From TrEMBL:
Signal peptide: none annotated. This is Eukaryotic translation initiation factor 5A. Residues 1-21 are annotated as: Disordered. PANTHER family: TRANSLATION INITIATION FACTOR 5A FAMILY MEMBER. Belongs to the eIF-5A family. CDD domains: S1_eIF5A. It comes from the Eukaryota. Translation factor that promotes translation elongation and termination, particularly upon ribosome stalling at specific amino acid sequence contexts. Binds between the exit (E) and peptidyl (P) site of the ribosome and promotes rescue of stalled ribosome: specifically required for efficient translation of polyproline-containing peptides as well as other motifs that stall the ribosome. Acts as a ribosome quality control (RQC) cofactor by joining the RQC complex to facilitate peptidyl transfer during CAT tailing step. Translation factor that promotes translation elongation and termination, particularly upon ribosome stalling at specific amino acid sequence contexts. Binds between the exit (E) and peptidyl (P) site of the ribosome and promotes rescue of stalled ribosome: specifically required for efficient translation of polyproline-containing peptides as well as other motifs that stall the ribosome. Acts as ribosome quality control (RQC) cofactor by joining the RQC complex to facilitate peptidyl transfer during CAT tailing step. Coiled coil: none annotated. It comes from Daucus carota subsp. sativus. InterPro entries: IF5A-like (IPR001884), IF5A-like_N (IPR048670), IF5A_C (IPR020189), NA-bd_OB-fold (IPR012340), Rib_uL2_dom2 (IPR014722), Trans_elong_IF5A_hypusine_site (IPR019769), Translation_prot_SH3-like_sf (IPR008991). GO terms for molecular function: ribosome binding; RNA binding; translation elongation factor activity; translation initiation factor activity.
Length: 158
């Protein structure tokens, strides 16, 4: 045995933590699925009968959780689909910068400054008006596959 130490540096991201495999036949409405490399919430699932080539097929209709765009996919029900790890976190809104970035307070007391205001007009107005009135706002941030976006706001003022 040699006394040398070996150091391995990871240069690439395997992407393993972004999704997990799940059999297509077990994915249901209101679940999540990756369609065309985008994380989607399943809004419709239909399953066709087995044809002469043997596989029942699942037809998925999903809405991209960040853009709201409708995407569709057809997968044999016995095959695996990628399902994104979707998480939701709440942060208190501290500040809104002129360039559209927000400053958020994390539970550990640090700030998170890498998120932009949402593009959804209704949500954007709720945040700007509430912040302008000096209300204590908590924003919900949804994250999946390395992307994050504000998707809800709550007023926690007394």
């Amino acid at each position: 045995m040699s006394d040398e130490e070996h150091h391995f540096e990871s240069k690439a991201d395997a992407g393993a933590s972004k999704t997990f495999p799940q059999q297509a036949g077990t994915i249901r409405k209101n679940g999540y699925i990756v369609i065309k490399n985008r994380p989607c919430k399943v809004v419709e699932v239909s399953t066709s009968k087995t044809g002469k080539h043997g596989h029942a097929k699942c037809h998925f209709v999903g809405l991209d959780i960040f853009t709201g765009k409708k995407l569709e996919d057809i997968v044999p029900s016995s095959h695996n689909c990628d399902v994104p790890h979707v998480s939701r976190s709440d942060y208190q809104l501290i500040d809104i910068a002129e360039d559209g970035f927000v400053s958020l307070l994390t539970e550990s007391g640090t700030t998170k400054d890498d998120l932009r205001l949402p593009t959804d007009e209704n949500l954007l107005n709720q945040i700007k008006v509430g912040f302008g009135e000096g209300k204590d706002l908590v924003v919900s941030v949804m994250s999946a596959m390395g992307e994050e976006q504000i998707n809800a706001v709550k007023d926690i003022s007394k």
